[in-house]
Amino acid sequence: MSAQKKRNFKIEAFKHRVDLDPKYAEKTWKVLEHAIHEIYNHNASGLSFEELYRNAYNMVLHKHGEKLYSGLVTTMTWHLKEISQSIEAAQGDLFLEELNRKWGEHTKALQMIRDILMYMDRTFVTSSRKTPVYELGLNLWRDNIIRSSKIQDRQLNTILELIHKERTGEVINRGLMRNITKMLMNLGTSVYQEDFEKPFLDVSASFYSGESQQFIECCDCGEYLKKAERRLNEEMERVSQYLDAKTEPKITCVVEKEMIANHMKQLVHMENSGLVNMLVDDRYEDLSRMYNLFGRVTEGHRLIRDLMTSHLRETGKQLVTDPERLKDPVDFVQRLLDEKDKYDKIIATAFNNDKAFQNALNSSFEYFINLNSRSPEFISLYVNEKLHKNLKGVNEEDVEIVLDKVMMLFRYLQEKDIFEKYYKQHLAKRLLSGKTVSDDAERSLIVKLKTECGYQFTCKLEGMFTDMKTSQDTMQGFYASQGFEAGECPTLAVQVLTTGSWPTQSSAACNLPAEILGVCDKFRAYYLGTHSGRRLTWQTNMGTADLKATFANGQKHELNVSTYQMCVLLLFNSADRLSCKEIEQATVIPSQDLKRCLQSLACVRGKNVLRKDPMSKDIAEDDIFSVNDKFTSKFFKIKIGTVIAQKESEPEKQETRQQVEEDRKPQIEAAIIRVMKARRVADYNNIVMEVTKQLQLRFLPNPVVIKKRIESLIEREFLERDEGDRKLYRYLA
Amino acid sequence: MASGRGRIRFNVGGKIFETTATTLANAGRHSMLGALLDDSWNPRQTVEGEAAANAEYFIDRSPACFAVLLDLLRTGELHVPPNMPEKLLYREALFYGLLDQVRAALWGPFDGNRLQLVDSVSGRAPGDGTAIRAGPDGGCCVAHGSMVHVYDWMLEEHRPISLDYQQVNDVGYIDAESIVITARERLGKGDGGMGVFSSSTGELRHRFRVSHYDQVKSFTAGALSFGSSDYKIFASCKGRCNEYGIGVWDQITGQQADFFYEPPGCSLGDADKLQWLDGDKCLMVATLFPRTDNCFIGLLDFRDKGVIWSWSDAGTSVSLSLDEKRVLHAIAIEDSRSICVVNQYDDLGFIDLRSNAGGVRWSSRSKLTNRKAPNEESCYPKLATHNGQLFSSMNDGISVFCGPEWVLTSTLRRSYGGSICDFSIGGDRLFALHSEENVFDVWETPPSRFI
């Protein structure tokens, strides 16, 4: 028997877990670390993406994500330190290029590393809230390169230096600049702003503050603006070429502040080339440039506007108060219109039709036109001149343009009622003398006045036109009723004028010659027969007559004369010589008018159908007149005008003014009553304000006058003063 | 064998696949296949074009799954063979970085009328569920007592979030990674309140604080709402010293941004439902189960701290009878300027937001035919809206209403699990939690296919 060897059973512990190679993580990481090194050393061609991806995948799967991530940070940081040294070593101009080159390499490597670690990015990074690989690479670059003490300042200074070079006209490598700024942008907006934009703006500010100082010392205003505009465009182009678009408003703001805002007062007031000179010389291009540049800064346009206004007021004031100008009203108005045209054109071409500028222009005109109290009269005279003769042969559109311009001046007038007064007089003369050129033009102006000032303003003017029309009809009716009988008498043309519509001229009727008187009586009988309850008076001072005259040498002429002149001439049918006094007695023409009338018949060359003895310009009571036998003229028709002053004489002016003041009284009173009727109680200031508002379409009432009217109304017991408060007025009804 | 232009050959786990660059472009540059073919990893390709085209890419993965995913890239459709577990496929898709494509092929944009039941997931927690919330990426979380169970879009359960026996009141997603939980304060402990947890690890990331007059106070947080445009979180809060109201925090910093103290007559701290209205920039607060006061629904404007609209049943509850219609849930529909409510008979009602005095206009058209007395097992009905469709849960089904008149167009129902105690729509999915058994249903819209 063999001794059985007892064997001890050895129970081995149950291996319930198959451990991975404990060095697995370390080994795998070594592979990946090596790959990252190779990628940075441009040696990636030997690497298998699939293998690396799988290794990274396995590490994350086996919960070594943390190790992988921290390993990545260490390795990448190590490489970036290397890179930083090589960038630091680059000399001079090569510095930026080296930085750019390394940046390119780093982003390329970073992309490949991200590819390998894609699985970690998707799983470990999101669940543990870490920074994704690519972003991590950018952050490490920012901290180790861009913000390292040896690179940060150098990079900034190099960039700023290059930009300075470009500003002084050198050509720089814009592509490189674009890459560098793009890199800063990629690292985050805050990096771009802090590491580049802010210092860039500071440097730019000091550059432009120096340059603008230099420019302003040696350039005139136009030249300076040209340079500023060019600088502004350069900066915008720079932004579009190699900076971030968001920098544009910031850098333009710097240029605007340094080159425009800080110097604009100096610029507009610059001697010999400032704003005033530009305006005077119509330098549209410079003005437009100034408008555009100043528009970029606050208060810029206002500065231009204020200076333009004060200049306009100054020149306008000179224009309207120059005694030389007052001699020729038509020229006076023409100059105003020219001035207006000039500024309209400036505003349209250079100031972009800016409403604020137009308003400034209007208020300036309003200001200085009303400085001269004769402006309304002159404007009316201008219209008279235009509608009288100057518009002959001009087409309708041009007429409209002239009328529109006149209306524009009219709008500036404060005393529109004075204009109305004169306009009525002038229109009456035009209508009665049949000298108005175009009925359409006349009516068109009235329509314009109506739209501007309302029905009341023009109803009398329209009445004048109606009178002219009905007169025509009346005359036709008159001749139809007289039959052939009329042929034996002088032909009569009567214009029946409504009292009130026409400017009343209180003149005593003269004695009409017997031949005329007969026809006149027939007409009076006819007219009163057709219209009951009317009264006819003859306005002999406004008529005209055509006379056939045969002179001693057998020459026949047709004389076109005024009614007064006719009366005088017909006297010579029965007498050879008459003294001035005799004529006055026979005709009862007011002596002032008679003198003018005789002057025109005897003293004007070529039209002297009477001879005066003695031959002098002035008419004396004892002067003797006779028919001028030696009168010759190559014309058959001869128009003998009356010597009348075109402008009003000084006393006439005073008279008109007084009349206007008189007319205003009831208007002011009516306005006061309207106000008080609505308010019942109001204080003095309020009344003045409201009344002024109501009347300003016609004229600007003087507060003193309003005060007087109030007193008058109190006297007539329309109003009373409040017993407690003397400033208050009450309406009594 | 002449390989044509753009042809690419793979050797996956020993099996050869051949495909084209165009097909692979569907994977995108930010996928494993996109990176594999990128020029930076194939430097020779440009030099020796022909040779590289014949090269073979080796991938050490399962060929079966690769075939399915390659088919997905070719056709945009996903056909999983019956013997292949879905989880396996998802794992492979994650490896290749193709999960987004897989997810898009699995279900389409949400449409209440085309929903299909795709899964019913049983949880292990005992007791009734409190709430279910859909995540933005197709996952969901279920609150049970003091636990919140988190599921990702593959319906795989993550580590549950445990609140140390504090009762969870409400949950919500800030994003797919972050879940906000409100919890009841336990007396004497000074805990409770509200925190952000990681959905993948279940860790507490941040606790929201409430301070009154610069003093941090403990509180019980109730209903939650998220402002979409300004990254705010709203929660109804009950402090211990009558500091009732609505707290506002910043989603990014986590700091308290505002506090709307409860004005008299409006109960805010007890609110059951908060809803941020983006168009009106105000918050709807509904307190429907008040302890003392009346039901209250109001719109709060935080800019000037005003209640700009409110409704209350104070007037109507004089005749207290069992038949009385009680508002049990409410939801604001901004497009139709109204608030939709539901009562114990599952009637829908509407309150006009444009007038302040209007009452509830109960809708007869949506009334259910089989009106039964509220039975012992039924749950309170819930409401939700999505893309102009209105959803209402009742007993064991969910009704879908559409159009301006809110016509009933679909009903979602399944046979077991008991009545639905809560449901939620998000990530193009609808999740319905049942009360009797701890099970929730997942409804999806099938992707639109050609043919």
From TrEMBL, chain A:
> Which positions fall inside the Cullin family profile domain?
374-602
List the molecular function annotations (GO) for this entry. Answer: ubiquitin protein ligase binding
Q: Which InterPro entries match?
A: Cullin (IPR045093), Cullin-like_AB (IPR059120), Cullin_homology (IPR016158), Cullin_homology_sf (IPR036317), Cullin_N (IPR001373), Cullin_neddylation_domain (IPR019559), Cullin_repeat-like_dom_sf (IPR016159), WH-like_DNA-bd_sf (IPR036388)
Q: Does the keyword Ubl conjugation apply?
A: yes
Record's SUPFAM superfamilies?
A: Cullin homology domain, Cullin repeat-like, Winged helix' DNA-binding domain
PROSITE patterns from the xrefs? CULLIN_2 (PS50069)
Per the record, the GO terms for biological process are: ubiquitin-dependent protein catabolic process
Keywords in alphabetical order: Isopeptide bond, Ubl conjugation, Ubl conjugation pathway
On the tree of life, the source organism's domain of life is Eukaryota
Coiled coil ranges:
none
Q: Which family is it part of?
A: Belongs to the cullin family.
Name by which UniProt lists this protein = Cullin family profile domain-containing protein
UniProtKB/TrEMBL annotation, chain B:
Pathway assigned in UniProt: Protein modification; protein ubiquitination
Residues forming the BTB domain are 6-114
Q: One matching Pfam family, short form?
A: BTB_2
Q: Which domain of life is it from?
A: Eukaryota
Endpoints of the signal sequence: none
Q: Which SUPFAM superfamilies match?
A: POZ domain, WD40 repeat-like
Q: InterPro entries per the record?
A: Beta_prop_At2g24240, BTB/POZ_dom, SKP1/BTB/POZ_sf, T1-type_BTB, WD40_repeat_dom_sf
- Gene3D superfamilies cross-referenced by the UniProt entry: Potassium Channel Kv1.1, Chain A
Biological process terms in GO annotation: protein homooligomerization
**What protein does this entry describe?**
BTB domain-containing protein
Species this protein is from: Ensete ventricosum (Abyssinian banana)
